[in-house]
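[Meeting: bench + compute handoff]

Bench side (C.D.) handed over the final construct sequence. Compute side (W.E.) agreed to return the predicted structure before the next meeting so the bench team could plan truncations. Sequence as handed over:
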Amino acid sequence: MVRISITSLARLPVLLATSGLVLTLTGCSFGEDHSDLRNYIEEVKATPQGAIEPLPPLRTYDAYVYNVTAMRSPFDAPMEVKELEQSNDPTIKPDFAREKEYLETFPLDSLSMVGTLQKEGRFWALVKDGVGGINRVTVGNFVGKDHGKIVAASVTQLDIVEIVSDGLGGWLQRPRTLKLSEKE
């Protein structure tokens, strides 16, 4: 009587697969003449070897410093900036005692003129602030963080004079223009 254990039954498929693979590989090597393959290998080895072209010379890297801190962002609408007016006038200085208006909390670049209206004989310009609100302004109102005062208003633009530091303890007047936005 032949006794077969469960562990030997579990090993049986592995044993059969391994023995089948060994028989297949040994069967392929018997009785075959591989002379044509050996001749081809000898022929390839006998051919002269070609020369490999040398690699092209490496180009040196020229470093470039991309410094755009003083330039306008390409995503902001262009604003017309006139030249600074040099002045040694000691009367040119911002009024720090004056209560700031709402549009002075935004940089002038974030404001855009979106329209005009006349109410009770008075001309008003409509300015969109940095958070999407529309505000009425007229000549004499202040806008922007650099103490900008509206000095003239027309249907197409607001003329603003900002008071900025000259970096030496004095103040300069800088004219700016806020034009009517065509995309609104």
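W.E. noted at the follow-up: Strands lie at 80-81, 112-119, 122-128, 134-137, 142-143, 148-153, 157-165, 171-179. C.D. will use this when planning the next construct.
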